[in-house]
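User: Teach me something about this protein's shape.
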Amino acid sequence: MSVAIWWIRRDLRLGDNQALAEALGHSDVVLPTFILDPKLLASPSACPGRLNFLFDGLEALDADLHRLGSRLVVRKGVPVEVFQALVQESGACSIFAEADRSPYARKRDAAVSRELPLRLTPGVTVHPVESLHKADGSAYTVFTPFSRRWHSLPFPGTPIPAPDRLAPPPALASLEVPEWSRSGGEVSFPAGEAEAQRRLERFRSMGIGQYADQRNRLDLEGTSGISPYLRLGMLSARQAEWVAREAYSMAEDADARRGAETWMNELAWREFYAAILFYFPFVRRLAFRQTLRNIAWREAEDEFTAWAEGRTGYPVVDAGMRQLNHTGWMHNRARMLTASFLTKDLLIDWRRGERYFMQHLLDGDPASNNGGWQWTAGTGTDAAPYFRVFNPVLQGKKFDSHGEYIRRWLPELSAVPQAFIHAPWEMSKELQNRVGCLIGRDYPAPIVDHAFARQRVLDAYHRGY
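Assistant: First, the predicted structure itself:
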């Protein structure tokens, strides 16, 4: 009987798994395999919470495989060396995996391909990033024309159902699972394909029609909450796009169609940033805009620590950072506001914030995280000028008008009246005493004046331009 290895990377699922489907189509037996890559585990961008989510996801996948008559094989080591041994041990004739086009993944896969029969399939994105380019072969660097191209492509087939059963994998000399260390903390996102599908279905039935109107509201659950599952492939990008298209076609009114269309556009943004990293891998180290690589960033260690810990004195910024630190996730509007505060109000290098987010986000993705930070910092592909500087007070009033999001994450402000919740330092001393929130003791005073900071960053960008 022929044996193929299904190399699991960012596809911890059985449904709509193109690598698994290809392996099943070319062999009698599939050996599901995950490799704990020491280089990734030791990466400065590794996130303990994301590793926990990965390990929980592997356990959920193994349980699903057992129900189909198979099991998960987990090995630890350099991928090419692990597979050389596993091919000998199992008699496998080929290795199938979904293509990951990030810089490290391409280098890793090239090393495996030189030694072993590795076959890559689509799946991490709806459309392969290498196919998304202009007619002359050059890369898109502005989202709008990229989006037009992305939406114009034929949808790449109906999502593939999960197999009903799998043949038992071949006997191996060792089935011992390498130990992995887990960190503590609250489980905000239960791992696994079943939970991913549950969330997607809930969003389809209850949220996608209102997405355009509610997606920026910090005080509402107006987003899908599936980004961690997309990150590790407990849900495929194609499944998400399929739901968006169905919701659009079945929408009862223009608002519902706009909601589905807006969410579909967010999926396109994800693939735009994946394409940017594919065509311009230097963005992980440098500003996309060459003219903005010489900004005189401040060190300001104490201010960076205050930002990271949610102690800036600006409630909407601090609420966002505390949500991130507590749950491993943050609302996208809060990501923009906290990133803007670090880069614009504090004039601290966007790469420090990018690294911090990668170390804490369950959905931390090199392409999307980098794209978001460079967009906010004004150094990236965005067509708008660099002088966009979010006012944290006005943004809080606009997207958390009653302060519910702030009070959820900053309990020390729970008794502050709505009129002052976004600028508590404006309360009189008498009112501060009355509500039990003394500025400078119970909650910090602002670490910088926003008007001063805005002018400072504009001057710094102008000098560095």
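Now, about its shape. The beta strands are 3-8, 29-36, 73-76, 94-98, 118-121. The chain has 20 helices and five strands. If you'd like, I can walk through any region in more detail.
User: That's plenty for now, thanks!
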